[in-house]
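Journal club side-thread
Mid-discussion, someone asked how the predicted structure for our own chain would compare to the paper's figures. Pasting it here so we can look after the session.
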Amino acid sequence: MAEYLPILLFLAVALLLSVAFVFLPIGVSRLTGAHKPTVAKLSEYECGFPAFEDSRSQFDVRFYLVAILFIIFDLEAAFLFPWAVSLEQIGWGGWLTMMVFLFELVIGLIYAWKVGALDWE
């Protein structure tokens, strides 16, 4: 049982911190008077406009397509940062590999643009 003590200690600390980060701000706001709910604060508000339909209604596939394209090109930026930092160590081979990667992503962007994936009607 002694082998499990560090795991149990870790879980206890994680639970304590989670509870503190959730309930401590709520308690402080109620004690300081910052908790003043109004009708406007309690209303649903998503995506820049109030909710007007059932929450289980189907979305247009364009929402998902734009989300997937955003993830793809966001990952491009995520790969650029470590590449730029380590460019001196990886040399010309690393530079050429990244240019091929960027070229492939630009081809993908041009294709998505041509088929109208970025157009919003």
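Post-session note: The first helix runs from residue 5 to 32.
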